[in-house]
């Protein structure tokens, strides 16, 4: 008997793939005000796992705590309580830092350097020899779509936003890292730039590397991530594989109006109402459902074989949490 086949998904992953990132009840509380007597909670009891070789997307509104979590994992800032492990070592371990790459959302560059000089400087920080540097930098520039001529002649101050993002991606990969952390890698890029970054991430995944990144561009996340987590106001409200959260793509998405609420609840998952219409995911035989809608006097506006988009799911989770909070405050 295959033991893994009888276990839940998370336990199967734990058997088949090593855990690369794991957090245990992380809290981050900032103190502010003149007397430092006011508290801002940036992370609340955050526990998650990231497995080797997967692309993991961390999502959330502005101020949700995404960058705070990333900086804790990188050892840039320290948690108020809780702990985390990266590549089987406590966060902040010096040797582990040699095995990871990082692209911040707003990277700072020595803008008087050319792209080639900047990458050579970065390679030197990792102790990469001169001969290896030349070959590796040339390969990286080709990978991120920068010509050697531009990288050798242009100072970084002359680079466009997209070129800076690509040179930033190259420096994140200069040490051939096992785990790559990317903070908003598609930020400010045009469609071509976003496509190139997606292709780079997919190529890293094909090499067996682990990618952990934050993004607001949910369509890109949906295309390239194996699993996602959603943070809202510092709290982890959802985590799982795409197929777990969005459902298999053989579900029917239905939108309509009229009919009986009690009947709809028997047929629909994630039923919601907006602007006089109802919508949700159908469970059961679609032909029987259509007969039921006709009998109860309802009307189908849209019936398609699909699953909710990540954007729809994201907004549903955030709105549901906010509505629950408002209800709790009123009561």
Layout of strands and helices, then pairs:
Blueprint (H helix, E strand, L loop, with lengths): L8 H8 L2 E14 L5 E14 L3 E5 L6 H8 L7 E6 L2 E2 L3 H4 L2 E4 L11 H11 L4 H14 L4 H6 L7 H12 L6 E5 L7 H16 L3 E5 L3 H7 L2 E6 L2 E7 H5 L5 E6 L3 H7 E7 L2 E6 L3 H10 L3 E7 L4 H21 L1
Parallel strand pairs: 3-8, 3-9, 6-7, 7-8
Antiparallel strand pairs: 1-2, 1-4, 4-5, 9-10, 11-13, 11-14, 12-13
Helix pairs in contact: 4-5
Q: Please give the number of β-strands.
A: 14
Q: What is the H/E string? A: HEEEHEEHEHHHHEHEHEEHEHEEHEH
What share of residues is helical?
25-40%
Mass-distribution shape? globular
3D structure, described in words:
The chain is an alpha/beta fold and 331 residues long. The N and C termini lie far apart (52 Å). The chain has helices at residues 9-16, 66-73, 94-97, 115-125, 130-143, 148-153, 161-172, 191-206, 218-224, 242-246, 261-267, 286-295, 310-330; strands spanning 19-32, 38-51, 55-59, 81-86, 89-90, 100-103, 179-183, 210-214, 227-232, 235-241, 252-257, 268-274, 277-282, 299-305. Helix 4 packs across helix 5 (130-143). Helix 8 (191-206) links the parallel strand 7 (179-183) and strand 8. The protein has 2 domains: 53-76 and 92-245, Rossmann fold; 248-307, 2-Layer Sandwich (Alpha-Beta Plaits), CATH 3.30.70. The chain is built from 13 helices and 14 strands.
């Amino acid at each position: 008997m295959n033991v893994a086949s009888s276990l839940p998904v998370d336990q199967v992953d734990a058997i088949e793939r090593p855990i690369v990132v794991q957090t245990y009840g992380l809290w981050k509380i900032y103190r502010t005000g003149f007397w430092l007597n006011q508290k801002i909670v940036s992370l609340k009891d955050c526990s998650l796992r990231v497995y080797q070789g997967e692309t993991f997307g961390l999502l959330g509104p502005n101020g949700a705590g995404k960058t705070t979590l990333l900086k804790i994992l990188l050892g840039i800032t320290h948690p108020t309580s809780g702990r985390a492990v990266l590549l089987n070592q406590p966060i902040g371990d010096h040797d582990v830092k040699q095995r990871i790459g990082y692209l911040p959302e707003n990277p700072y560059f020595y803008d008087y350097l050319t792209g080639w000089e900047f990458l050579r400087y970065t390679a030197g920080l990792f102790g990469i020899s001169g001969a290896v540097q030349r070959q590796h930098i040339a390969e990286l520039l080709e990978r991120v779509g920068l010509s050697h001529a531009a990288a050798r002649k242009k100072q970084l101050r002359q680079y466009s936003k997209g070129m800076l993002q690509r040179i930033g991606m190259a420096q994140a990969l200069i040490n051939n890292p096992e785990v790559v952390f990317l903070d908003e890698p598609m930020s400010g890029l045009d469609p071509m730039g976003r496509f190139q970054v997606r292709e780079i991430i997919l190529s890293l995944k094909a090499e067996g590397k682990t990618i952990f990144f934050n993004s607001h561009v949910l369509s890109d996340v949906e295309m390239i991530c194996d699993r996602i987590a959603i943070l809202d106001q510092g709290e982890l409200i959802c985590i799982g594989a795409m197929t777990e959260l969005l459902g298999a793509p053989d579900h029917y998405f239905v939108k309509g109006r009229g009919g009986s609420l009690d009947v709809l609840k028997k047929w629909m998952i994630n039923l919601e109402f907006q602007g006089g219409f109802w919508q949700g995911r159908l469970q059961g035989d679609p032909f029987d459902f259509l007969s039921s809608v006709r009998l109860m006097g309802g009307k189908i506006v849209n019936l398609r074989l699909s699953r909710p988009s990540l954007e729809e799911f994201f907004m549903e989770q955030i709105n549901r949490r906010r509505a629950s909070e408002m209800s709790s405050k009123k009561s």
